Amino acid sequence: MKSTIILGSARHLVLPEEMCQLLHLSEGDVLDVEMDGNGIHLRPSSEGGVTLVREGELLVATGYPKGVDIGAAVLADRDDRGTTVVAPYARVRGVKK
């Protein structure tokens, strides 16, 4: 996708709404800027951290680097919470793992 944008006051850039939607970018997201010859490249930053943005009734994860399997990350987080939060209470109740 290609678009033309105008550099505004204080050198601010406003990205087209369609691009932001496709990249799940929202106000406050961190972008990496890289110069390449006479051009620049903007990418969602991998250091910005993952945030959840509400789109209608859904929560959409933003800010994760491309190639990350967010579904696997969610399942791994659930497993971690299961061992750190649920396991101690299971022992108290006498439930076997």
Describe this structure in words.
The chain is 32% helix and 23% strand. The protein is of the alpha+beta class and 97 residues long. It has two domains: 1-64; 67-97. A two-stranded antiparallel ribbon has the order 1-2. Strands 3-4 form a two-stranded antiparallel ribbon. It starts with 16 loop residues before the first helix and ends with a helix.
Short account of what is shown:
With 97 residues, the protein is an alpha+beta fold. The chain has helices spanning 17-23, 70-93, and strands spanning 31-36, 39-44, 51-55, 58-62. The mean pLDDT is 79.
Distance N to C terminus: 51 Å
- Integer average pLDDT: 79
Radius of gyration (CA) equals: 20 Å
Annotation, overall tally of beta strands:
4
Weakly predicted, low-confidence segments: none
Number of H/I helices? 2
Total separate domains: 2
Shape: elongated
Strand order of the largest sheet: 1-2
Biggest sheet: strands, sense, closure? 2 strands, antiparallel
Summing up helix and strand content along with how strands pair, one would put the structural category as alpha+beta
SSE order, one letter for each helix or strand: HEEEEH
User: What percentage of the residues does DSSP assign to strands (E)?
Assistant: 15-25%
Into which percent range does the helicity of residues fall? 25-40%
List the SSEs and their pairings.
Blueprint: H1 17-23, E1 31-36, E2 39-44, E3 51-55, E4 58-62, H2 70-93
Keyword list:
97 residues, 2 domains, two-stranded antiparallel sheet, 2 helices, 4 strands, 32% helix
